[in-house]
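Supplementary notes for students who missed Thursday's class. We covered one full example, reproduced here. Read the sequence, then the structure, then the short commentary at the end.
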Amino acid sequence: MSTQGYKVVIVDDEEDAREIIALLLNDFFPGIEVAEKISSITHAARLIPIINPDIVFLDIEMGDGTGFDLLERLPGFKGMIIFITAFDNYAIKAIKASAADYILKPLNRDEFRQAVNKTLGKLERLNYEKPGAATHPVSPAEVRKIGIPNLTGYTFVDVDTIVRCEADGNYSTVYFTKIPKITVSKTLSHFENDLKKFGFMRIHHKHLVNLHHVVNYSKGKNGGYITMSDGSELEVSARKKPFLLKTFAQR
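Structure (token representation):
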């Protein structure tokens, strides 16, 4: 995925936090331009419409307001928002604000990279689907299949037959309703990018699930557990729990 041409703005009232985000971007996405590092809501409200960044990395609790206050002052902003905060109690509000992702401090390098990759994927699809694009792909609603690599090419499978995917380092195992599981040398992030438009959700660093096959949620340690249609019981991370419950309209 090319990152050339993308601009970001970092809004955080802690200098160390701004620098860490900038360093991680330079490490993982050197083609992205950090257009500005901003320390206040007031300055961000003035500069963001001028810069028009593709992504804003936004803290929530700041000295002169909150990240949500900033969004209210930017009603015409069309870029992506990634909230980065030390507080886990704003996740539902972040979802309602259409945030691309929500990352807790202290930053985890892998989680940061995954969040940015996911957001860049959204930007690429939006750019591709703009009027005037050279071609348009067939709607995923019409072709609900993905290709899984094999020794000679790809096996095309109906996404509705996929129950879940499980990570094992740089490999992933795909579990189906009727055919045997398949293990391939692709990361779980690869499958997340391919399947999220079909109703799949990353509930844990090891688990990507088809929400149509979730049959039960149980409270427990950290984020609790879900039971899938194949009988498997999977741990939900504390960070993903609010997004999962929000998806099923639970309060």
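Commentary. DSSP finds seven helices and 17 strands in the chain. Helices lie at 15-28, 41-51, 67-72, 91-96, 109-128, 188-195, 241-247. If anything here is unclear, bring it to office hours.
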